[in-house]
Design brief:
CATH superfamily: YaeB-like
Largest sheet: 6 strands, antiparallel, barrel
Number of strands: 8
Structural class: mainly beta
Helix content: under 10%
Strand content: 25-35%
Bound molecules: S-adenosylmethionine
CATH architecture: Beta Barrel
Order of helices and strands: EEEEEEEEH
Shape: globular
Mean pLDDT: 95
Number of helices: 1
Oligomer: single chain
Length: 158
């Protein structure tokens, strides 16, 4: 009998690795107004280079990656953006998640073969990359709601 989907284990092989100037989590900007300007590279396995064909046409990319230096998870998370109250892990970007998957949007600066030069890294050097996709947003800004993040940012501005 097929196992229930929520009881299976999925094994993924990273497509590459992040080369970032951040060696420790303390070096990565956090909290309200944090800006991610760090530049580095996304280095793909050489045999996957053809998968980058036509990527130069996109200004920004989604990068899916693994919080490989994170252990365990909290269903309810205390986050640097809001020191007043905790939030559900799925309402947050906490690294301590049941499946430690990170999602970042980076600016594509250039490409040399299987290596992408990017800006906007918020991950550590050596972070395994699971996938890369072009960033396309079709949601008009007036339709976007930012939940508790908006409230926390407004409080800090006051
Ligand atoms: C708040 S998370 C957000 C990451 C991503 N933008 C997301 O939304 O999934 C970013 C933090 O994760 C931590 N971090 C970055 N790379 C990591 C890694 N490879 N393993 C564990 N923690 C990491 C750092 O503390 C960093 O400030």
């Amino acid at each position: 009998m097929e196992p229930k989907p929520t009881e299976t284990t999925i094994t993924l092989r990273p497509i590459g690795v992040v080369r970032s100037p951040h060696r420790e989590t303390s070096e990565i900007p956090k909290g309200p107004g944090a800006k991610h300007r760090a530049e580095g590279t996304l280095e793909l396995r050489p045999e996957l280079e053809d998968g980058l064909r036509d990527i130069e046409g996109f200004s920004h990319l989604f990068v899916l990656w693994v919080f490989h230096r994170s252990e365990g998870f909290d269903v309810v998370a205390h986050v640097p953006l809001d020191d007043r109250r905790p939030h559900g892990v799925f309402s947050s970007r906490s690294p301590r998640r049941p499946n430690p998957i990170g999602l970042s949007v980076v600016e594509l600066l250039g490409r040399e073969g299987p290596v992408l030069r990017v800006r906007g890294l918020d991950m550590l050097d050596g972070t395994p990359i699971l996938d890369i996709k072009p960033y396309l947003s079709s949601i008009p800004s007036e339709k976007l709601r930012r939940g508790w993040v908006e409230e926390a940012e407004a409080r800090k501005r006051r």
